[in-house]
Amino acid sequence: MRSQCPLPNFNHEPVMVEEVLAALKPETSGRFADVTVGGGGHAAAILAASSPSGWLFGCDRDGAAIEATEARLRPFEGRLELRQGNFADLAGWLEPGSCDGVLFDLGVSSPQLDRADRGFSFQQDGPLDMRMDTRQSLTAADLVNTATESELAKIFWNLGNEPQARRFAAAIAKDRVGRRFESTQQLASLIERLAPRRGKRVHPATRVFQALRMAVNDELGSLREGLTAGLRILKTGGRLAVITFHSVEDRVVKEFGQRLARGYTFTGDVDVPDLRQPCAPQLKWVQRKAIKPSMAELGRNPRSRSAQLRVMEKL
Ligand SMILES: C[S@@+](CC[C@H](N)C(=O)[O-])C[C@H]1O[C@@H](n2cnc3c(N)ncnc32)[C@H](O)[C@@H]1O
User: Fold this and answer.
1) pLDDT tens profile 157-180
2) Residue 13 CA, ligand 1 centroid: distance in Å
3) Is 249's C-beta closer than 6 angstroms to any atom of ligand 1?
4) Ligand 1 geometric centre to CA of 288 (Å)
């Protein structure tokens, strides 16, 4: 049963709404999936644009997001289904070939970042948690306290592109001998001591926090499975729109699109022209280049600055 407590404020300003609508072209009879429904901003825009009978499935790993979105989308009751879960499981919830458009708006929402008790932010002190789905047992504290030094270095390098990955991992391994890491500030201040800010705009712990969040939530694994599932549930001619916020996740989206837009496969890591096996492409890019937020949006919503939208169409 849902709690009867007043809902926490769930203010998330959705990015590139106009561009998403232009990509998905919602029509009255359309069926859509917003698989990172968050605060419901994009979902509300899709439902409004596909009135009076367009239908939307929304999911999110975060139970608080689903609760807030249920309240926000009440005016569209009867045209929507919401579920808490990982979009990696999408193909088990919706029929293959049943949707006209699927939207992924990756990363975290503003309320997740702003609430200290969720443990995503180095700006405020909170438990070192970072779970999108709080029913999951692994937390960021578990990783920081139990992963080996080399595992931590790999996480910081591979998922955060952190140039000082090894140095930070070694310092954490040394520091945790006497005491467990329990709070976001404990970790953020260690990184700040190792790499003083000296007037830089970006906090030195930004990449470490991003990497830990991605590892705790297995974000790249979910993304690979989610994209495959998203394509599966699309009708022929349906559109897949994906918004990313950093190069690590954008690379996964680009590689997915490039692999399935090619008319051939190859085994191994190297594409040797003579060894290509022809196959039918499964999608095409709607636009070769990623779409970026407009200047007006950048002025209105600074959190949109790293957003990029890629759009593919199922063949
Ligand atoms: C940037 S926010 C989405 C905001 C939303 N588009 C809106 O208009 O409010 C990203 C959301 O994706 C969710 N999320 C991230 N990875 C997920 C996954 N694998 N499965 C389901 N939801 C996920 C997060 O919990 C977060 O609520």
Assistant:
1) 999 999 999 999 999 999 999 899
2) 12
3) no
4) 25
